[in-house]
Amino acid sequence: MPDGATPVLDVKNLKTVFSTRSGEVHAVNSVSFYLKPGELLGVVGESGSGKSVTMMSLLGLLPSPPAEVREGTVMLGGKDLLKVDAQTMRKVRGGDVGFVFQDPMTSLNPVFNVGFQIMEPLREHMGMTRAQARDRAVELLEIVGIPDARRRLTDYPHQFSGGMRQRVMIAIALACNPKVLIADEPTTALDVTIQAQILELVKDLRQKLGMAIIWITHDLGVIAGIADRVMVMYGGQVVEQGPVKEVFANAAHPYTRALLKTMPKLHGTRDDKLRVIEGQPPMLGRQPVSCPFRDRCAHAFDRCAQENPLRREIGDGHDVACHWDHREAQQ
Amino acid sequence: MSTARKLVEVKDLKLHFPIYGGLLRRQVGAVKAVDGVSFDIYEGETLGIVGESGCGKSTCGRAVLRLYEATEGSITIDGQDISKLSGNDLRKMRPSMQMVFQDPQACLNPRMTVAGIIGEPLDEHTNWDRKKKLERIYELMDAVGLNREFANRYPHAFSGGQRQRIGIARALALNPRFIVCDEPIAALDVSIQAQVVNLLEELQQQFGLTYMFISHDLSMVRHIADRVAVMYLGVIVERAPVQALYDSPMHPYTEALLSAVPEPDPSVEVQKDRIVLQGDVPSPSNPPKGCNFCTRCPKVMDICHETPPETVEVGPGHFVACHLINQQQTAG
Fold it and tell me: Low-confidence residues of chain B, pLDDT below 50?
């Protein structure tokens, strides 16, 4: 699958199941993906598609019970993260892998000042002294574009605006020079003009620091602007994956195609009616035996009800999990 | 459009929330959530209100229905100045003006059945018998695409999109003429958003409704609105027919806002020359002197820090409040 560089992160056949009172929920089903050094992988999907749970599973961030990572391997730096002990995992979280969460208000601790929160991973993972950590914290705040950084170290999260808080979160995630940065809907809670600021910042940071990034979002526009590759998730599975230009130009999965069409455009002609994906996303109650998108798919046929399609390669690094051949439609 | 009647006329609407402080809890200031906005909505059209969080668009929408008492200004709906109406007279106006709320989770009472929720306006404003009410409830459920069999279920049994349909059915119950939609799709997934927007458009045609559609989603507003007003820090900075606003925005804030929207097309995104605004929106309790946008404006001039700009008409129905435009007009 990966050509050239060996991936920094290689996930294979990840399966996560939640046990609830009304039975099991198969939130992540045989998800495989890789991340090459320095690239930005965009992960798109609706709520409940399993995108966040996938990333939380990688780092063992899900409470168990109810969650259980049943199968799979997560290779990072020659180690399988699903097999390592708690101590090693602690080193990975915040060390090799940085995590930026969606809501910057709830993910920062309101009773500690931001300086303490940025210095915490530095002292924990890098063994820095207080003074060293403070200098590095100032440097980090400057990198993420917070003016008057040294003075702001003693400020508390509530003294920052939403965009500034998200910058602080990014600074914390970057603290230990992670190989991989996972950003889970980092701009969803922000306004568009502030989102534009954060996106510019991330583009800039990638050039300066060169780490690999996984960017989770439901906004295809954001993906189009920053990602190298995109992975589309639906019903706990990866339905399509490929280089961003290729997927946007030649989307092969009916879900991706429909998703691109439902979004109204900012330019060009205005449609009379929006294209709609009828129906609701699936409940992930049982181990899926059929295609999860079957009920809402315009191209579904008998086979879709009988077997869950496997991912198949259809172009250079572009694969899709669908029985229907999209090329039929183009002819 | 010129033949259409004005259904809603808002003039110089101000809404200031007082801030109390000090030992004696005296009023020490005010949050100027809406600070002098004027607009009209014609019968059968959709006015989109866009802006970032905290710009006062939701407060404005609520004030128009008098869910908040306006500090100053007049709101005329269907010839009646509702800002002066007494409680009883206002109550008689309520059936003609309704609201669809943002969060379909929070705006439905979890202890009431769907039939109870949709029928509540009927209980309040009509003296129909049970059978007639139930008939109307079923009719409304059909209109918004909910299965009649679900009438006795509770809101928790429904998905976000379906809950929003319940909220819309409730708003339609009394045959309103004017509906304020306050971010009706913000809490929904992309594929569900399109369903709800299509439903709103169908209902508009079917019942001749007039909408005030409040949203931060500029692409969706472009789709649904006939005219659009852009708000920033309590004031309308630009107001224009939808095509004029999106094709030739005049106010620097509108330009920046439009350029900040990421578009789902990598080739466009790569070429795009994005205007990235610096800094954050100032606090509405202490807005800057002069033009509200002067702290972030990329084209700021000296005069902007001194006097607030007048709103001028630059094209048919296209109003802009910016010193830059005023200067160009006097120069040219």
Answer: 1-2
Please give the full DSSP string across A148-206, using - where no structure is assigned. SHHHHTT--GGGS-HHHHHHHHHHHHHTT--SEEEEESTTTTS-HHHHHHHHHHHHHHH
Give CA–CA dist B309/B306, Å, rounded. 9
Q: What would the two tokens of residue B281 be?
A: 């929106």
Look at residue A3 in the predicted model and tell me its pLDDT: 53
Residue B80 is classified by DSSP as E
Question: Does the interface predicted TM-score (ipTM) exceed 0.85?
Answer: no
Task: Look at residues A129, A46, A237, A41 and name the one whose alpha carbon lies nearest to residue B190.
Answer: A46
Which positions in chain B have a beta carbon within 8 angstroms of at least one beta carbon in chain A?
Answer: 52-53, 159, 161-162, 189-195, 197-198, 201, 216, 218-220, 222-223, 242, 246, 256-269, 272, 274, 276-278, 280-281
Do A248 and B274 lie within an 8 Å CB cutoff? no
Mean pLDDT of A193-206: 87
Q: What per-residue confidence (pLDDT) applies to A1?
A: 45
Q: pLDDT tens digit string along B59-70?
A: 999 999 999 989
What pLDDT is attached to residue A4? 59
Global pTM reads 0.86
3-state secondary structure of B170: helix
* Distance in angstroms (rounded) separating the CA atoms of residues B291 and B297: 10
Reading phi first (left if > 0) and then psi (alpha if -120 to 50, else beta), residue B320 is in beta
Q: Do A266 and B263 touch (CB under 8 A)?
A: yes
Start-end of H helices in A3-129: 51-58, 86-92, 104-107, 114-125
Nearest residue of A to residue B255, measured between CA atoms = A193
Nearest CB among A191, A221, A267 relative to B52 is that of A191
